[in-house]
Design goal:
This protein is α/β, with parallel strands linked by helices and 658 residues long. The protein is built from 21 helices and 30 strands. Helix 19 links the parallel strand 29 and strand 30. The structure holds 5'-O-[(S)-ethoxy(hydroxy)phosphoryl]adenosine (WTA).
Length: 658
């Protein structure tokens, strides 16, 4: 049934016209009411000051916003706070030390229960350990870990010490890790021996060994034992977590840092091959992460059990597992593994076991659940659920309705949250106690946020019109730049609508007749595969780095489950003309090795030539048409003639991108 319900095409999106207002009961008890919009409209800066006051500041700010050096914002200027103190210590101090912070569920079924007192002890010990290693405020620490509690302790210990963390998704390759360590000049990598994936331990440290062999800035590798896999060991450089952290004192006094102190760098794909290190700072970021988490998910810290299924390797894990939720004194589930290990009901079993009340996931997973069938969630007691969320890509109305009916018992509000690594926190979303939700639409900018859909000239389009999504006002959680590259920051986000001073998100969008926003997918060369951003150029560079490849063009083709699938067209070198199964497999594996398995092309088509415009630009739209052509089917290789026939048919249709 998912075959037809795919991707962001507008025709698909506008098929469902029902709206779903919250129940009176939900609305009456909600954290956010309609007055929140009114308060923000009345005085934006005063509104954000009120939100910042939800946190503990050691020194209060003198000024809410300094935008004089645009596009480099400063929020809560002169304020000082400790982010980890806000996420941990203050909850213990206010008498909630025994509250569970994390119900951790390992993939093999082992569990750990971590209270706020435990969390404070673990974060303090980790901070003392990092200090013993000689790390100092401002140093960068790479974190390359699966979803184990130590990953969260590590992030918070960095925040506590004013170290800037750079979390690298554990599914990325050694090469991806290497380039990120190098770009940030990190001094330490924290990792594990291995990780559980699909029921089996898989090694992780070998990738670190390979990466750090070429990164002289790394002084130590701190290794958590997770799978008990045998690992290679470099004496002096490598340290077992247990040997160093366990012996530390569980007392540590946090220091307050400037509101603009760098909290983390997180790399994301851009339209060139080189990933961008998105920089987030402390006070504004935490203010917005905390505010959005509290209001969008209607978090009730005394009674809710929250679960965000993201990985800490992505921004969703940063803002909606670590900083937002913990700052709000959440009780949350953190799950290590894959959703179908050991069976396809694993998520629902976890919801039932912990009585999860708020569940936040990605459309690609919802479509996968649809494929597995509604009988699976039906076997479990999901009655604890009261808010559902979606993030990462446009959610098609069919998937939205399926989610509501089969997970939310036709009762729970669904919040479709639009945001980006760059925005730091949710920007466009319904408020569950206010908005009559519409399947497929993220609807309106949150109170305090301003978003517009504009045409080529930067003029707002009328209701019913489509164009580019822009953010026309600075916001507290906004990126403060690209690590080490201010020029690229201006170019990438601020040059398209420089005259108007708009931030251009890279997404197409449209207003419906009520003025609600519908996201239509990226308008640049960034693909969205299972909610992961991957640039076409990055995959092309990986392909041409293979000795058999002369030229490569990569497109994102609509895929019923993953949103988009990566399709590569390659021209082989003269002496490597054989484009058989083996050659194609070698290329797919090569991309996985260079970037990571998530970037492995769904299809590689060996072609004798690539369609180009007269000026030499590859005609991607045409290639996308070819890639999406149903007659191609699912085969990984195609006879040259088939592809070329399709390409020439397309050319004859007058497709052009000049
Ligand atoms: C897309 C993930 C439609 C969008 C938090 C954006 C979405 C990119 C949605 C950012 C949504 C994210 N509806 N599209 N609710 N959420 N996107 O940086 O194209 O990994 O630009 O951040 O994902 O991806 P990123």
């Amino acid at each position: 049934m998912t075959e037809q319900s795919q991707g962001p095409a507008l025709d698909n999106l506008l098929t469902e016209s029902r709206t779903f207002p919250p129940s009176d009961e939900f609305a009456a008890a909600a954290n956010a009411g309609p007055d929140l919009y009114a308060a923000a409209d009345a005085d934006r800066e005063a509104f954000w000051a009120t939100q910042a006051e939800r946190l503990h500041w050691d020194t209060k700010w003198d000024r809410v916003l300094d935008w004089s050096d645009a596009p480099f914002a400063k929020w809560f200027v002169g304020g000082k706070l400790n982010v980890a103190y806000n996420c941990v210590d203050r909850h213990v101090e206010s008498g909630h030390g025994d509250q569970v912070a994390i119900h951790w569920e390992g993939e093999p079924g082992d569990t750990r229960t971590i209270t706020y007192s435990d969390l404070l002890a673990e974060v303090s010990k980790t901070a003392n350990a990092l200090t013993e290693l000689g790390l100092q405020t401002g140093d960068r620490v790479a974190i390359y870990m699966p979803m184990v509690p130590e990953a969260i302790f590590s992030m918070l210990a960095c925040a506590r010490l004013g170290l800037t963390h750079s979390v690298v998704f554990g599914g990325f390759s050694a090469e991806a890790l290497r380039s990120r360590i190098e770009d940030a000049a990190a001094k330490l990598v924290i990792t594990t021996d291995g990780q559980y994936r699909r029921g089996k331990p898989a090694p992780l440290k070998p990738a670190v060994d390979e990466a750090v062999a070429q990164t002289p800035t790394i002084e130590h590798v701190l290794v958590v034992k997770r799978t008990d896999t045998e690992v290679a060991w470099t004496e002096g450089r490598d340290i077992w977590w247990n040997d160093l952290v366990d012996k530390q004192s569980d007392q540590h006094t946090p220091e307050a840092f400037d509101s603009e102190h760098p909290l983390y760098i997180l790399y994301t794909s851009g339209t060139t091959g080189k990933p961008k290190g998105i920089l987030h700072t402390s006070g504004g970021y935490l203010t917005q992460a905390s505010y959005t988490h509290f209001n969008v998910f209607d978090l009730k810290p005394d009674s809710d059990v929250y679960w965000c299924t993201a990985d800490i390797g992505w921004v969703t894990g940063h803002s909606y597992i670590v900083y937002g939720p913990l700052s709000n004194r959440v009780t949350q589930v953190v799950y290590e593994g894959t959703p179908n290990t050991p069976h396809e009901g694993r998520h629902w079993e976890i919801v039932q076991k912990y009585k999860v009340s708020i569940y936040y996931t990605a459309p690609t997973l919802i479509r996968t659940f649809m494929k597995w069938g509604k009988d699976i969630p039906a076997k479990y007691d999901l009655s604890s659920l009261r808010v559902l969320g979606s993030v990462g890509e446009p959610i098609n109305p069919e998937a939205w309705i399926w989610y509501r009916e089969n997970v939310g018992a036709n009762r729970t509000p669904i919040v479709d949250t639009w945001w980006q690594t760059e925005t730091g926190s949710i920007m466009i979303s319904p408020l569950p106690g206010v908005t009559a939700t519409k399947p497929g639409s993220a609807q309106k900018a949150l109170p305090g946020i301003s978003a517009k859909v504009v045409d080529d000239q930067g003029k707002e389009v009328p209701h019913g019109g489509g164009g580019y999504l822009v953010l026309d006002q600075p916001w507290p959680g906004m990126l403060r730049g690209i690590w080490g590259d201010n020029e690229r920051y201006r170019d990438t986000y601020w040059s398209r609508f420089a005259e108007q001073g708009f931030y251009f998100a890279g997404d197409g969008a449209k207003y419906d007749n009520d003025g609600d926003i519908w996201l239509l997918g990226r308008v640049d060369d960034v693909m969205n595969v299972s909610g992961h951003r991957i640039s076409t150029t990055e995959v092309e560079s990986a392909l041409v780095s293979h000795p058999t490849v002369a030229e490569a063009a990569v497109v994102g083709a609509t895929d019923p489950t993953t949103g988009q699938g990566i399709v590569a067209f390659v021209i082989l070198r003269g002496d490597a003309v054989d484009g058989g199964e083996d050659a194609v497999k070698a290329l797919r594996d090569h991309v996985a090795k260079e970037i990571g398995p998530i970037a492995k092309p769904r299809q590689v088509m060996v072609v004798p030539e690539l369609p180009k415009t007269r000026s030499g630009k590859i005609m991607r739209r045409l290639l996308r048409d070819v890639a999406e052509n149903r007659s191609i089917g699912d085969v990984t290789t195609l006879a040259d003639s088939t592809v070329m026939d399709l390409i020439s048919q397309g050319l004859n249709k007058g497709s052009s991108e000049d």
